[in-house]
Write a structure and sequence with these properties.
Elements lengths: L1 H62 L12 H13 L25 E4 L6 H17 L3 E4 L35 E3 H7 L4 H11 L4 H14 L11 E5 L8 H9 L6 E2 L2 E2 L7 H5 L4 E4 L2 H4 L3 E4 L17 E3 L2 H14 L4 H14 L3 E5 L13 H8 L8 E6 L8 H5 L3 E4 H4 L12 H11 L4 E3 L4 H12 L7 E3 L12 H4 L59 E3 L2 E3 L6
Helix pairs in contact: 2-11, 4-5, 5-6, 11-15, 15-16
Amino acid sequence: RVKMMGRVHHASWRSAPRRRRHARRAAVAFAVVVVACWLGFLSLHLFLFSKEEKEMAARRVAATAAPPDAAVPPPPSAVEADCGAILSGSDGFRGMRYWSERVGDVRRYARGGYCTFEVDNGGFNNVRMSFETVAVFAHATGRTLVMPPKQRVYLLKQTHAGNVEAFHGLDAFLNVSALPMEIIDTPTFVERIDGSNEEKRLALNAAKTGEPAPRRELREWQRRRASLTPRWDPLREVVVFGEEEEEKTSEEKSEDKSSKSGKKSSGGRDLPWRFLTPSEFATEKRRIRYLDRRTAEAPWIHFAANNSAGYRIFTHWYTFLLFTDGPTDVYYKRFARDALRYTDDVFCAAGKIVRRLGNYSAVHVRRGELQFAKVRITGQEWANALSQWLRPGEKLFVLTDETDRTFFEPLLTKSFRLAFLDDVRGDALLDLDPNKLGMVEQLVAAANARTFTGTWFSTFSGYVARLRAYYGHDPRTVYYAAPRDKQRAMHDLQKSTRPEFPFYTREWALAWDHIDDLPPAPPNRSRPDLPTERHYDDLPLPTPKTSSSFTKKKKKKKGGELQQGHNTA
């Protein structure tokens, strides 16, 4: 029994390690099962979550408003081909291109430096006018043009899927890539110039947003750091690129007044270049400011737009900048026509509308906030004016900011067939930025309309007249409804080549007269000599004599005397 008991005890002692091994193996197996279950549950959860996310994304896409063609966009090549056909013309359609692709080159009045500028605070056509002047000046002085940051432009603030904040750079509307010069953005410019890191950081932050406060900081920094900030007043002075004009005798001045015959003659042959001398160009209303070395060779020139201080670049470039050298003058006329134009998508959209309209005339009825009472006429007055030169029953494409269609009922009584952009656009403008619709209307009125009737004082109407000249239309097909003495202002061709104060109220034939009949400028000409520094700011400015529409008299009582101030804005 003792032996047997010893055997049993020994057997139980030997089986204890086995039991422990079995227990460990069971624990490991249980842990493996738990981990496997956890991984399986996690995989299932991730699968279901991703499926739910995909369904939610699909619902968001389905709920997003999109153009009808957005689901199946046409191939880019087809879009480009269609736009190319519209620009070049096909099947009896003349096409929307009026420019030449070969801008060429011309001698410069300086080499190097930068040109920055502030966007004008007015409507887009005022912005465009200011930009044209800055671009011509920058190119003529061989500068790199610095584009300002994106911002909201007056009256161009419609948001859309592609721009939810309505911030635009000028390159959104103007084809700046066509300019034959170096163009950079503001952040690139800030990185190039010398300055402290903190100063650059503030400037870069301001350049990356279109909000007013940062833009104000950037503007003040540019005005403070620029080598030169011209305070020019285009209504009271002109900038002349060329040699100073010799002082004329009293007899020569009297001869100039008696002979307003147009082009000067040399041996019985008309000179092919601009015939206005600096004094004739300036008229008695403005002084002459010759481009000097200090201005031409300044490393950094900044054009400010300060309406309250009176140095806003608000005029047509060709009525403010004069190139006395004939080839250079013609070059910049072509430069403005060929390179300073709207983006191609605007031309393509306008071409579709032109083809749909067929034969038509166009009229621009400006209402809105136009401050000149003499041109805010009634619908009946518009109808009476238009009936003088429009054909009975003629189709009339109407460009207007008037939202009340009953205003145009008197035109219907004259049997005119009215067509507004909303009536003919269809699906032609689905993919176009809605802020470009006014530019489309301008091109439609310019490209193929038999006549165009505009609103006097409106730079929108004025640009249509210039575009029509670029398209080859006779300026005598342009009319104005009011005032009565301006209805056929564009028909006096001789007077149209001599701009008159206040210059911006209309366009002048000086911009396009014989633009393609004259020989091109020789390339790479030597740089002309410039006069030394001139202190023009110390000279008195002539005060233009004009009507109360442009002169605002502010009477203030001070020391028993009345003072009068001139409003140049």
